[in-house]
Design goal:
The chain is built from 12 helices and 26 strands. It is an alpha+beta fold. The strands form 8 sheets. Strands 14, 15, 16, 17, 18, 21, 23 and 24 form an 8-stranded antiparallel sheet that branches.
Length: 482
């Protein structure tokens, strides 16, 4: 929104001069006032004018930055599939200005080398700094959104595929998590909205043209110098370090028994084809809450979209439920966020839990030990294949964009081996905790591709027991390669 002019008035009774600035309507709920006023003295209009600059260095000079944050928040909280022409019209009505997180383009990017480089420059500049939105089909005048210019040059699917191919082939390292959405315009044609998350593995380089790294400020995109690149490299390292520190902190707490609830062995029912049921009949179980714990952490790398919405999270219990169990779930609020348990917490009969943290991380834990020296690889794999897609879908519903870090661990495993239905020699685990390297998933909806994404985790899991790679898998049986 364009900010109103500042007025300097003389008080009719005291003779003092006052600076007055009207607060734009859309910012009044944020500022809490309709007008900002400051006393600049009574020593004449020249001195009042001089002092005005100093006084405007106080809260009223921050209106421009508040404006930028308000527009950014307004766009970021709307799911991409729900963006409409009305949202673009609001940008124009409010006089939304281009900023470090918002870029307007009147016309689509062409097919020339320069046009392709310009598109990649604009997107990588956003990703390398704060993330943000690129709106194609909105004209700007003096940096302010002024008019919707719909395009009919290409079909949306064709244009989306072209831009995605550019991102895949001409940016290094690969830029993930970018979302492209068409917005239908009543007069005909479409506009395009491109949402670019702040990158977790910046900086990204444009490979077309001069192979440069770009950043973005309120004045637009710029080529980054050595010091700016160094700062981004250090920032990316910090992001990776924060994720690993979160995981290490949580695994340490779980190992010490510092969990929201005490876990009991899972109930696999009486199905004779169920591996767990077969082993339960054959051997007595020791308490499983102390050994063979499967732990899954899912961490969004995108910024927190808004304050944690407990009621909305509770409406997504099916998405955030712990590893699938026979039985029912309970959920309740706790200091960390939302806790969901499989079983009855009052009877201390809980076989798994999921903790949705207020900052977007998810932790789910389940005992996997069926007898003193074995766990079932099938149950590990079924649990992860079931849980990961649900959690990503739930995080998407809470407003988190890709990419996500997925981390699996098995705790207190030394000496434990795998149940094998097909014979063959498996070595027991040679260490207490099997902490598997993180993987990055750049989508909310995995559909049928979940196995492909999780394969590095499964391979590492089987490597820990002396097997070169994870066996082929279907929903009913393992087919090991030995």
């Amino acid at each position: 929104m364009a900010l109103p002019m500042t007025r300097q008035d003389k008080h009719p009774k005291t003779g003092a001069y006052w600076v007055r600035k009207a607060v734009p309507v859309s910012l009044r709920p944020v500022i809490g006032k309709r007008e900002l006023v400051a006393d600049v003295g009574d020593q004449g209009p020249s001195e009042a004018c001089r002092r005005r600059g100093a006084r405007l260095g106080q809260p009223w000079q921050s209106l421009s930055s508040i404006q930028e944050r308000t527009v950014s928040t307004f766009l970021s909280t709307i799911p991409m599939s729900e963006l409409t022409e009305a949202h673009l019209e609001r940008l124009i009505t409010d006089g939304a200005a281009e900023s470090r997180e918002l870029e307007f383009k009147r016309d689509p990017y062409g097919d020339s080398k320069d046009a392709k480089r310009e598109f990649l420059k604009d997107l990588t500049a956003l990703a390398n700094t704060f993330g943000g939105h690129l709106i194609i089909g909105v004209a700007e005048h003096s940096g302010l959104a002024s008019e919707i210019i719909a395009t009919t040059d290409r079909g949306f699917d064709e244009e989306k595929l072209r831009l995605e191919n550019l991102l895949r082939d001409a940016v290094e390292p690969r830029l993930t998590g970018v979302q492209i959405q068409e917005i239908s315009i009543r007069s005909g044609g479409v506009a395009l909205a491109v949402r670019v998350p702040k990158s977790w593995n910046a900086p990204h380089r444009v490979l077309i043209g001069d192979n440069r790294f770009y950043g973005r400020s309120s004045a637009g995109a710029f080529s980054m110098d050595v010091e700016q690149l160094r700062a981004i490299f250090l920032g990316a390292s910090d992001a990776e370090s924060r994720v690993r520190q979160f995981r290490d902190r949580r695994l340490s707490a779980i190992s010490c028994g510092d969990t929201p609830v005490r876990l009991q062995p899972p109930n696999f029912g009486t199905d004779p084809n169920n591996i767990g049921a077969q082993i339960r009949k054959a051997t007595a179980l020791r308490p499983a809450s102390s050994r063979g714990l499967l732990v899954l952490h899912v961490v969004p790398l995108s910024p927190i979209p808004q304050a944690f919405d407990m009621m909305r999270a509770r409406g997504l219990v099916e998405e955030f439920a712990p590893f699938r169990e026979n039985g029912w779930y309970q959920n309740r609020a706790n200091l960390d966020g939302l806790l969901i348990v499989a079983g009855n917490e009052q009877d201390q009969n809980v076989s798994a839990y999921a903790q949705v943290f207020r900052t977007g991380q998810i932790e789910t834990v389940r005992p996997m030990q069926y007898r003193p020296d074995f766990v079932s690889p099938r149950e590990v794999r079924v649990g992860l294949v079931d849980a990961v897609p649900r959690y990503l879908k739930g995080l998407g519903a809470l407003g988190y964009d890709p990419p996500f870090v997925v981390m699996a661990s098995l705790l207190d495993m030394k000496g434990i081996s795998l149940v094998s239905q097909h014979g063959g020699h498996l070595f027991p685990a040679d260490r207490e905790d099997l902490v598997i390297d993180p993987i990055i998933i750049d989508a909310n909806n995995l559909a049928s591709s979940v196995e492909t994404y999780l394969l590095p985790i499964f391979d590492a899991f089987w490597n820990a027991f002396g097997v070169l790679q994870a066996p082929a898998f279907d929903s009913s049986a393992w087919n090991p390669p030995y």
